[in-house]
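#lab-general

N.A. 3:47 PM
ok so I finally got the sequence cleaned up, no stray characters, all 230 residues accounted for. can someone with queue access submit it? mine expired

B.Y. 3:52 PM
send it over

N.A. 3:53 PM
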Amino acid sequence: MKQTIAIVEDDVEQRNYYANALRKHDYSVLEFEDRQQAIEAFAKQLPDLALLDIALQSDVGGGYEVCRYLKQRDATLPVIFLTSRGDELDKIYGLQLGAWDYQTKPVSLDYLIVRIESFFTIKELTSGNGSNDNVSIFGDMKVNNKSMQCFWKEQEIHLTPTEFSILSALLEAEEAISVDELIKATKQGVVEDNTINTHILHIRKKLKKIDANFKCIKSRYGFGYQWLCE
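B.Y. 4:20 PM
back already:
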């Protein structure tokens, strides 16, 4: 059965560009030009993955609202922002809404296809329940590497795949780990230092939402980060 990808993009040429490329890779593609059109369709049936622009015509934050709607319906649904808005605050907000990725245009089709394929693979792995053999314990943190789930004090932290990779690298490192090593851990190829900082900020916020006293991710200025629970 074909996997369905929804593209919410107000620029017709860009939307067609992505849609045609995805169809050539045997995906079923749904195209929408604004928030209302997309949400009305999603109310009837959710896609398997969504590609969202942020500004949709005069709706400057429409993509954010589409993401919020999708995450309320299915927290595990992969969402990728494809946007010309490269400001760090935009990236932070997009990731805080639960997006799995945030890419600033232009994005190469080859790269985009690989990211989509990897996210479908991850979702397939996380759809099943992992056994205890896959669970690692780091104090109050439990990590299931097969299902890519994390639990802090028995409460699940809903991380994106990139956040999970970064947190796993922090947990497994005996000492501080450099930003360069965290970039390698994401397996994304091209990642900026500021992007790692954004993901760390997002991970901290998710943990503090569960535990207001959480302070286990330490900054090592000029180098990287360290998992250290005192």
